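User: Good morning. I'm curious how nicotinamide-adenine-dinucleotide would be positioned relative to this chain. Could you predict the structure with it bound?
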Amino acid sequence: MSEVRNVLVKLQALFALIGFAALTPLLVLAAILGRLIAILCCCSPPKSIEGEVAVVTGGGHGLGRAISLELAKKGCKVAVVDINLSGAENTVKQIQETYKVCAKAYKANVTSHNEIVELNSKVVGDLGSVTVLINNAGVMLHRNSLDPEPADLQLMIDVNLTSHFWTKMVFLPPMKALRRGFIVTISSLAGIFPLPYSAAYTASKAGTLAHMRALQMELVLEKQKDIHVTTVLPSFLRTNDEVTELTKSIGFNSIYPLISAEEVAQRVVAGMLRGEHEITLPGLTSVFYRLIYLLPSDWQIRMTVLFTKNQIKRFREVRS
Ligand SMILES: NC(=O)c1ccc[n+]([C@@H]2O[C@H](COP(=O)([O-])OP(=O)(O)OC[C@H]3O[C@@H](n4cnc5c(N)ncnc54)[C@H](O)[C@@H]3O)[C@@H](O)[C@H]2O)c1
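Assistant: Good morning! Here's the predicted structure, ligand included:
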């Protein structure tokens, strides 16, 4: 029986490999052509968000700050939300120095449903009804990566995943009543290419992707075609100093250079306004992950380990 199973697994792997080899050039070509056609023909013209109200969680630093500035550039009023109020105030100062839009800093912990409810009341009173939600706040590293404390694991899941349920519960119903809005969720490539020794991060980011796909289906079923959901899956960014140092010390930048917050923010806001559902950065990873998913699961793991084993070994050494 087990011999038959082994033969079947080998056959499955062989078919997947043939499909992989045959489809790679076609999918790469299709991705390039699709992008070119979208740019040349402006298939879906970008929507305007001038005068709309955006909430950006984790807007006091890094990618959240860059997205806040990019939204302000498009004429959007911005509620910059962070657990670190001085970071949020700094972002607001930068917005007010450059753009003529209303922006206000708010202190809130996204893991608390009550604080999100209070935040919504304040923002509606100060700026108006929220029609753009950017779920960006995130925690990336545990104090002890190889053997994290239960409280650290819980915090990562609460900030990176559970908080998106709280923001959805609070901000989506008014969007549904207005029949328009944008929800952008910052996930990570770790959500589709698992990061060993970062299981909670990987699980939280895979969870956000699954959450947003389920939400998209619900909005289709409810015919809410003017509420757009965009999930962003970036590679490592040059935003958080600890992550930047770590990726350099493990040699990740030799696989792909770290991406700047400004580059991601421009891509995210442009994609959001065109109603794109999923944005991977770099873009070609959207083709690679679909190809790798054709392989049997143990081959997927072997291939990923093959390409990243030196970096994973260094990660273990650096974080031990
Ligand atoms: N840095 C990377 O390499 C990278 C790669 C892929 C995805 N991402 C994701 O991008 C997002 C932004 O990352 P970043 O590098 O700009 O992070 P960052 O650490 O520079 O900024 C995160 C911000 O979130 C805030 N925050 C943390 N916990 C919070 C809470 N409980 N309530 C409210 N605010 C809170 C922090 O105070 C900080 O201002 C995160 O979701 C992260 O997982 C980052």
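The beta strands are 53-57, 77-82, 103-107, 130-135, 181-186, 227-234, 278-281. The chain has ten helices and seven strands.
Let me know if you'd like a different ligand tried.
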